[in-house]
Amino acid sequence: MGKPKRERTLKDNEARAVLRMLRTSPQKLNLVASAIRGKKVEKALAELTFSQKRIAKDVKKTLESAIANAENNHGLDTDALVVAEAYVGKSLVMKRFRPRARGRVGKILKPFSHLTIVVREVEEAA
């Protein structure tokens, strides 16, 4: 006897991909995530491909994963997908110390963050 199956938290026309423990600050990651929020999937992928930000490569990989989840797991049409949500969460912060002048110490913070991308299938208005 196993556990009962958990109810699906997303709607039937949505799919999600989550990237955890991404080694960048949530503030920097949110700049890239807000650039693709609400856009069609093809346009968002093109914008991430040509972005100058280092973290855009990881965001693109997560978006491609969400698209693959929508197509393979939920049978959604990839041409009608829109980035419904792209939000960033704060994770742990590694604390490191570096010796400075006159016996003092410099604190170095190395933040991590989580990224969640939800894509939604929308009907074309004809």
UniProtKB/TrEMBL annotation:
It comes from Maritalea myrionectae. The globular domain of the protein is located near the polypeptide exit tunnel on the outside of the subunit, while an extended beta-hairpin is found that lines the wall of the exit tunnel in the center of the 70S ribosome. This protein binds specifically to 23S rRNA; its binding is stimulated by other ribosomal proteins, e.g., L4, L17, and L20. It is important during the early stages of 50S assembly. It makes multiple contacts with different domains of the 23S rRNA in the assembled 50S subunit and ribosome. Pfam families: Ribosomal_L22 (PF00237). One of its GO terms (cellular component) is cytosolic large ribosomal subunit. Belongs to the universal ribosomal protein uL22 family. Part of the 50S ribosomal subunit. This is Large ribosomal subunit protein uL22. The keyword Ribosomal protein applies.
